[in-house]
Amino acid sequence: FFLFAITNVKVSIISHNKKKKKNNSVYEQFFGTCPYQHYPVTLQTINKNNKNIMRDSIKEYEAVQEAAMKFVKSVAEGDSKYARELFTDDAVLFGFLDGKLEHGSIEQFYHNVDTVSGGEAFKARIDVVAVEETLAVVRVLEEGWGNRIDFTDYLLLLKIGGEWKCVAKAYNQNSNTIQKK
């Protein structure tokens, strides 16, 4: 039992299996074995009142997904008005579009969306990667933006005034959809 103090939170590491493995793993076969025994562990987070801290509720994940839907709706329809509700005024953008680095203000994203709609073949998928009280990470997979480009976007959201707002967008354009100029 180990105890780590992190601002009124303790993490207990509970060892489950003290039997040493007889078969070496692929890692051990390649790199060699460690002189210390490997024990599977479970992390259990406990607050200062010795009560378990659970992940956010499904309802909170749904709220994050609903916020990210504003992003997808803007891209699909070619209208930044929905995304403007999602992003903070000082949100930033980073990524490469057709091999050219875009960085800085989210205004560049608004310009791109207002200039080119998703198109008929456009598809998107939203994955809520993590929600931690006031912070969320969302991955959006886009296929066929402007009938030719596939993206993977990562959105960083903060819960500000009870509402999920995006403060940063970083993206990758799939290399097979880059058009050289």
What string, H for helix and E for strand, traces the elements in order? EEHEHHEEHEEEE
Sheet/helix structural class: alpha+beta
Biggest sheet overview? 6 strands, mixed
Q: Which consecutive residue ranges, at least 5 long each, have pLDDT under 50? A: 1-21, 26-46
Arrangement of strands in the largest sheet: 5-4-9-8-7-6
Strand content: 35-45%
Number of helices: 4
Record field, number of beta strands:
9
Query: Which shape, going by the Cα principal axes?
Result: globular
Mean pLDDT: 79
Describe the secondary structure blueprint for this structure.
Layout: E1 3-6, E2 9-15, H1 26-31, E3 41-47, H2 58-77, H3 81-86, E4 87-97, E5 100-105, H4 107-115, E6 123-132, E7 135-145, E8 149-160, E9 163-173
Parallel strand pairs: 4-9
Antiparallel strand pairs: 1-2, 2-3, 4-5, 6-7, 7-8, 8-9
What does this molecule look like?
By secondary structure, this protein is α+β, with helices and mostly antiparallel strands. The protein contains 4 helices and 9 strands. It has helices spanning 26-31, 58-77, 81-86, 107-115; strands spanning 3-6, 9-15, 41-47, 87-97, 100-105, 123-132, 135-145, 149-160, 163-173. The strands form 2 sheets. It has a 6-stranded mixed β-sheet with strand order 5-4-9-8-7-6. Strands 1-2-3 form a 3-stranded antiparallel β-sheet, with no helix packed on it. The protein is globular and about 60 Å long.
